[in-house]
Amino acid sequence: MYSSSVADAPLIREPFHAPVAHLMRGGVVEGVHYGSVVVLGADGRVGFQLGDIEAAFYPRSALKPVQAVAMVRAGLPLDGELLSLAAASHSGEERHLEGTRRILELAGVSEEALGNVPDLPFDPTVRDTWTREGRKPSRLAQNCSGKHAAMLYACVLNDWPLEGYLDPSHPLQQAIAEIVEDLTGQRIARVTVDGCGAPLFSVSLHGLARAAARITSAVHGTPEARVADAMRGHAEMASGAGRDVAALMRAVPGLLAKDGFEGVQVAALPDGRAVAVKISDGANRARVPVAAAALARAGVSADLLTEFQGEALFGGGREVGRVRLVRSLEPVVSACA
């Protein structure tokens, strides 16, 4: 399975991405999405790869389940929907705002303590309603507010200072970095700042898939299993109503899935099978069908994945094409099950 040792950091280089999907219009390839894909079997071995799975990259919010595990290991007592929210890139629905308020109340701190950037809700419909009502950007509405509230709670529980909790040298972020290296099985290549202001750790796509597999295959009751159970049991709290990542978790029994900006998707099953995808141009329209194809490669029944096969392309109000996978990603009988 997985070694307890931590390998060297992945190399920082221009990734050798490969074509993963075509944008077809009227039977002609209009565009090509490049990216990388890795599929791990239940034994932890690579069963399929395409592109560059070992170069350093930023997983963005796809790393949030790992960050949540680190906080639970540090004593965060959340479970269920609030723990799911701690690992969320939420849509800014009222339940997400209320859940974040509840975490802050448990921590005994105010909304002003949040260090994430003020923003409007992520979901377009929710955002439009928010704007019509004359509401301004807020830290509570920003899609990472649940994670930040949980970070503050973890600081309170450990008597760590709230001031500077987003600094990479802060004890909280040092604890998170340690768990990132533990679960990915490799040293962090570089640290920068994510969109919300939190430290962002660079690992490889292979390492991201490995971390997801270790979370979903962990023994019941462990911090890893608690995070997986919370996100699977409250998929809309980790994302939002109508979000594709929640639909993916509902469609595939036992699946944990997390998306990230710039075309990142990770997903894993309870037996340790896992997939990770990076779309080089950050396109969402390629992220989901490529991830679904990777899951099929991992042995998930194609019947469960039919709604994730790629969005249609319209011309003059009628369908004239769609996103199509490259041939090497087309469904096959998996050797990873």
Mean pLDDT: 95
Shape: globular
Distance N to C terminus:
14 Å
Summarize the biggest pleated sheet. 8 strands, antiparallel
Order of helices and strands: EEEEHHHHHHEEHHHEEEHEE
Count of DSSP H/I helices: 10
- Low-confidence residue ranges: none
Work out the strand percent.
15-25%
Report Rg: 19 Å
Helix fraction by DSSP (H/I, runs of at least 4): 25-40%
Brief write-up:
The protein has 337 residues and is α+β, with helices and mostly antiparallel strands. It has ten helices and eleven strands. The strands form two sheets. Strands 1, 2, 3, 7, 8, 9, 10 and 11 form an eight-stranded antiparallel β-sheet that branches.
SSE inventory with pairings:
Elements: E1 18-25, E2 28-40, E3 46-50, E4 56-57, H1 64-73, H2 80-86, H3 94-107, H4 124-132, H5 145-157, H6 171-184, E5 190-193, E6 199-204, H7 205-216, H8 223-233, H9 244-251, E7 256-260, E8 264-268, E9 274-279, H10 284-297, E10 312-315, E11 318-325
Antiparallel strand pairs: 1-2, 1-11, 2-3, 2-9, 4-6, 5-6, 7-8, 8-9, 10-11
Helix pairs in contact: 1-5, 1-6, 1-8, 2-3, 2-5, 2-8, 3-5, 6-7
